[in-house]
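User: quick one, sequence for these tokens?
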């Protein structure tokens, strides 16, 4: 039964077999907190799965799935004349800083999906698509904290937005590297320990300027509340 479960999961993930085999059946199942969230697509579920694998073992994620992403990305941009500027090299400062940040990441609490939070993420992603925006502010001027506080008052919260990707591995690794973002805010949301963020909403939607946008909202809730939504 465990082998069948793992094989089915690998077929959904569509990542390289070598990297997937570096993770045990039990680890994948622990990280796959969104498996029964019917309101999420498979790619949205896998965004949560991958963020949880990072939190389970940061160095191992760095040497498996992140390496797959970088190799695939570099192969894809090889066709462009400015390949040398586009490629991610092993001395890229964002790549090397990520290595340092992931060294102490081990067995952090998992993220759990929430249907209400996902509805808020989806609403903002649809708004970005409809109005061709690329901001955390809604078209009516509301900041993300105002949107989320209507349903999650007095909670620590944050938001990641990714543009250009529709596949979970690309989305998560792009946010984790956070190239071009000096504050590394997207990275630190995924690796959060300070604010105890544990509840997430995810929505991947089309976008007129970037093809796709992904909104990931994070909220800190009592563990039993987050866990009860699955």
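Assistant:
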């Amino acid at each position: 039964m465990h082998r069948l479960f793992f094989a089915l999961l690998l077929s959904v993930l569509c990542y390289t077999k070598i990297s997937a085999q570096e993770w045990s059946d039990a680890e994948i199942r622990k990280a796959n907190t969104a498996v029964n969230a019917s309101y999420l697509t498979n790619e949205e579920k896998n965004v949560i799965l991958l963020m949880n694998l990072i939190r389970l073992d940061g160095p191992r994620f760095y040497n498996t799935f992140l390496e797959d992403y970088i190799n695939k990305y570099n192969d894809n941009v090889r066709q462009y004349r400015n390949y040398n500027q586009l490629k991610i090299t092993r001395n890229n400062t964002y790549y090397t800083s990520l290595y340092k940040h992931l060294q102490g990441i081990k067995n952090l609490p998992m993220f759990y999906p929430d249907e209400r939070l996902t509805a808020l993420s989806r609403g903002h992603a649809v708004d970005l698509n409809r109005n061709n925006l690329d901001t955390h502010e809604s078209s009516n001027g509301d900041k993300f904290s105002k949107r989320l506080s209507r349903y999650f008052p007095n909670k620590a919260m944050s938001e990641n937005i990714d543009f250009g990707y529709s596949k979970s591995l690309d989305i998560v690794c792009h946010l984790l590297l956070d190239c071009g973002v000096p504050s590394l805010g997207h990275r630190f949301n995924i690796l959060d320990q300070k604010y105890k963020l544990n509840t997430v909403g995810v929505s991947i939607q089309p976008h007129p300027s970037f093809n796709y946008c992904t909104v990931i909202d994070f909220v800190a809730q009592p563990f039993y509340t987050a866990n009860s939504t699955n």
